[in-house]
Specification:
Layout: H1 17-39, H2 41-48, H3 52-76, H4 82-101, H5 106-133, H6 140-169, H7 171-192, H8 198-212, H9 220-241, H10 244-249, H11 259-281, H12 285-305, H13 310-338, H14 344-373, H15 377-401
Length: about 425
């Protein structure tokens, strides 16, 4: 990918901290918008007169809208200026959240989430590449890490604070505040984010498309397997996490007012896991994936067994957050290590799609299991799918064991947080 910049061509530009922080802020808002219904699930259920399972389906609607619309809309808007697109996307996300805040009924909320999903998919189709075009080639990994760090902060601060505000002042106010923050984010991006050259992007995109279309790339089967692992893992995770608030306030007997604080602790643990993935486990993503899956499964199983015992259950809950926080970056690192250079762009697109399929499929599966068998079946469903993922990781290890490591590009530095929600 050729880095371009609108700054003076005869000097090396300074590292664009302001622009990247503006992008990270946009990522923070987008991911918070995607996941905030999980924290406000009981409040929205009671207010709209529908079951908690139906509120959980809002995450499915959002994610599946991303899967269905992102690819065709990205193709249609390929030549549009990216800077204006990001500003416009934030405005559309703000409108989506405002419509949710004033929704008179559940059907209206579903429609507003579909609108948000369309914008969210467009956002994730361009944000990573935009960060790469702001810096020279050797700084792309650093730039992408900073940008996608906003997604991690959304789980650490955005969703817990939105949950806390929703419990205190009502869920509608949380969505209204998020809509206002989207407007502020659009202004920040418009002012601080430098523009990039679209002609170079289009030419480079055509070259990448031709490269990705080459047949018989030996790495494709292993890449597809890694994407399958991501999808299965995320299905299990979001089947349970979508209904984590009813689990906390039900079997774990956590007071509703303390849920936001506990989700904050969970997010902090996930951030620690993210750091461990990049600094300790990143160089050996295969081993890291095995360890993270095992610890995640053990923690979730312990949470199910010990839900009625406050201290052990809280320890298991935090351990779950720590172990799962390492999984998305390790999966992305494993995918980049597995893929050939020619297939890497397409592999990244497949990974993003599989991740969103996992989010939407998990929320759907969780809703069905919750409605049919009750809340306590969800963690065991999660554990079962983690076992499947672990078996697939072993298969991928065998598939790539005898293949030359020619494709192992500098993936560890370029694999921060998950795409979102992304």
């Amino acid at each position: 990918m050729t880095a371009t910049s609108t700054s003076s061509p005869h000097t090396v530009p300074k590292f664009p901290w302001a622009g990247l922080i503006a992008l990270a802020s946009a990522v923070f808002l987008s991911v918070t918008s995607e996941m905030i219904p999980t924290g406000l699930l009981p409040d929205m259920s009671a207010s709209l007169g529908v079951t908690e399972a139906q509120i959980g389906l809002l995450v499915t609607v959002f994610a599946f809208t991303v899967v269905v619309t992102s690819t065709p809309l990205t193709a249609l808007t390929r030549r549009w200026p990216r800077h204006g697109m990001i500003v416009g996307i934030l405005i559309v996300l703000g409108v989506s959240n405002l419509l949710t805040a004033i929704a008179p009924d559940y059907a209206f909320v579903v429609g507003s989430r579909v609108l948000g999903g369309v914008a969210h998919g467009m956002f994730w189709s361009i944000v990573g590449a935009y960060a790469g075009h702001l810096v020279p080639k050797e700084q792309i990994g650093r730039a992408v890490s900073i940008t996608l760090g906003g997604g991690t902060l959304a789980f650490v601060f955005g969703v817990p604070l939105g949950t806390f505000a929703g419990h205190l002042f009502g869920w509608r106010l949380s969505f209204g505040l998020l809509a206002a923050l989207m407007a502020v984010g659009a202004i920040v991006v418009a002012k601080l984010l430098p523009t990039v050259e679209r002609d170079a992007d289009a030419r480079g995109g055509r070259r990448h498309d031709r490269a990705a279309a080459r047949p018989r790339d030996r790495t494709i089967p292993a890449v597809v397997m890694v994407c399958l692992i991501a999808a299965v893992t995320m299905v299990g995770h979001y089947a349970f996490y979508t209904f984590v608030v009813p689990f906390l306030t039900g079997p774990m007997h956590i007071a509703a007012g303390a849920v936001g604080a506990l989700l904050f602790v969970y997010g902090i643990a996930g951030a620690v896991g993210l750091v461990l993935a990049g600094s300790v486990l990143g160089p050996r993503p295969q081993l890291g994936l095995v360890l993270a899956l095992l610890v995640t499964g053990a923690a979730v199983a312990a949470l199910a067994v010990l839900a009625g015992q406050p201290i052990p259950a809280l320890i298991a809950f935090v351990l779950w957050g720590l172990a799962f926080g390492a999984l998305p970056p390790l999966l992305q690192t494993r995918m980049l290590h597995t893929s050939s250079a020619a297939f890497r762009d397409t592999a990244s697109a497949l990974y993003t799609t599989s991740f969103n399929i996992g989010i939407g499929g998990g929320a759907l599966l969780g809703s069905l299991v919750f409605a049919a068998g009750g809340l306590m079946l969800l963690p065991w469903c999660y554990v079962a799918l983690l076992v499947v993922s672990l078996a697939l990781v072993v298969v991928v290890g065998r598939m790539t064991r005898d293949r030359p490591a020619a494709s192992a590009a500098p993936a560890a530095s370029a694999a921060p947080a998950a795409p979102g929600t992304a």
